[in-house]
Request: fold
Amino acid sequence: MKRKRSRTDIIHDILRCILEKNNKIKPTHLMYKSNLSHSQMNQYLEELFAMGLIEKTTTDNKSIISITKKGTGFYKQYSQMKEFEKTFGL
Amino acid sequence: MVKLVFTPDWFLGKDILISFFSFFVLAILFWLSFKNYKFSKDKKNFLYFGLGFLLIALGELSTILTKLVLYYNTTFTQQIGQMIVTYNVVNSVDIFYKIGFFLYKLLTLAGLYTIYRVNYKQTTETDVMLASYFIILSTALSSSFYYLFHLTALILLIFIIASYIRLYKKNRLTNTKILISAFSLLAFSQLIFIFSKLDVLFVLANIIQLLSYIIFLILVIKITRPLNLKNEKKKKQN
Reply:
């Protein structure tokens, strides 16, 4: 059985999903790709907006979510930390 | 005259370069671990792990400084004319060497023990006190029986390797495999150091130590290299 994702794991997954879609993703797609319910996703998105890790742009009444420079930095640092943790079993 | 190091004349200075390279790699490992600790905020394991590498790095620094003085200062003391003056200088330098090498051994063993202990959830104060006692004892005795230090380091390294083999059986990661090979080479170098009264073996042990730190550096590069999203995706699918 897969272990429950931590809060930071979920944030990492959200950022990864956005980056995989060339840094432009619709909120509905993001919800499906990151395996979250609507309310959970809104909660996380609000947090990520407040932290300045992602931004929202609206064109033709369509919302698009993308990662900021700070968000990319966070994603890289988190991935590196995970790799280090797994390698040394910390 | 008491021989302080077993370095053959033609190898003098080269062993300092190897120690310097080791110090550089260990300092990177400490910095990386500390950076991860600051990022994760609550994961103390990163901090202790980094501390282990920092202690070994400081040990290497201590041996570098001691050897620099030892190799490049001896001629100076010999050139002083007055016999009594020369005797006093040699005596004070002797104490400096002893402290330098004592610190090197103490810090290295303490660092290895810290790395070994990181992955164990339960560590009692008595465990740490007992280990500290044996580490100090082994360091103090190794000024008379030089091989004791290498033997203790070898034992600690074997324990570290065993715990990483257990980890590899669980995670099957290439990086952990690389880590095991780096620690195994380091252990092998300690085994050869035990017999390093022979010049050739001393040089061989140094070269093997250099190889192990090169592998550590490769591992650091593998961990810190820029991310490739396609690779990440593949990894996740696997």
Observations:
- The CA atoms of residues 14 and 20 of chain A lie 10 Å apart.
- The interface with chain B takes residues 16, 19-20, 75-81, 83-90 of chain A (CB under 8 Å).
- The two ends of chain A are 21 Å apart (CA to CA).
